[in-house]
Specification:
Blueprint: H1 14-39, E1 44-48, E2 54-58, H2 62-74, H3 80-112, H4 122-217
Antiparallel strand pairs: 1-2
Domain K-box: 88-178
Pfam families: K-box, SRF-TF
GO cellular component, one term: nucleus
């Protein structure tokens, strides 16, 4: 089915005009955004509705785009000095914006640390309190997770040390048993030598008695 071409003229019906304005405005802003993204172009759109309501879109700062438009409208496009002056002004404005943002972030950081709170109203203090509470909650959560990991790691180390201690205890008992067995074997060897020595001493003593008896009786000494 072929779509009927709409005649470009003012729409008389107020409701239809408002609906068309809303649809076409969104489509226009979408196309501007696509053009800016695809072609890296600086785009600024300012739209006032029939009732005077403002709608705007800008790919960067709207004020910078307006200033840039003014400079381009007033200056000669072939003048490098004016172009350099414009670039310098843009850099100064960017520096001023960044400086203000930096100061604002520093102020917020100090307030989070409990400083410079005197100038804040009740609503701002309550908002700051919620931010701090949310930060503390996240810190406590991460802290708890780290505690659990540390406990799990310590339990593993404890089990490992207990296993190593058990192994060392077994090795110590085995070494003590081996030492006792070796000592008993040495004592057994010493006892056999003592019996042999004692036996030799007894025999020698008996031989001495026989010799003395033979001398007293005038008998020959046995050998």
């Amino acid at each position: 089915m072929v779509r009927q071409k709409i005649q470009i003229k003012k729409i008389d019906n107020l409701t239809a005009r408002q609906v068309t304005f809303s649809k076409r405005r969104r489509g226009l802003f979408k196309k501007a955004q696509e053009l800016s993204t695809l072609c890296d172009a600086d785009i600024g759109l300012i739209v006032f509705s029939a009732t005077g309501k403002l709608f705007e879109y800008s790919s960067s700062s709207m004020m910078q785009l307006i200033d840039k438009h003014k400079v381009h409208s007033d200056r000669d496009m072939d003048s490098p000095d004016q172009l350099q002056s414009f670039n310098l002004q843009s850099e100064k404005k960017n520096y001023g914006i960044l400086s203000r943002e930096f100061a604002e972030k520093n102020r917020e950081l100090r307030q989070l640390n409990g400083e410079e709170l005197q100038g804040l109203g009740l609503e701002e203090l309550m908002k700051l309190e919620k931010i701090v509470e949310g930060g503390i909650s996240r810190v406590m959560k991460i802290k708890g997770e780290k505690f659990m990991r540390e406990i799990s790691s310590l339990k593993k180390k404890e089990a490992q040390l207990q296993e190593e201690n058990s192994q060392l205890k077994k090795q110590s008992e085995q070494a003590r048993l081996n030492e006792v067995e070796g000592h008993n074997a040495i004592e057994g060897g010493h006892s056999a030598d003592s019996i042999t020595t004692n036996h030799s001493l007894v025999n020698g003593h008996l031989d001495y008695i026989d010799s003395v008896t033979s001398l007293k009786l005038g008998l020959p000494i046995p050998y």
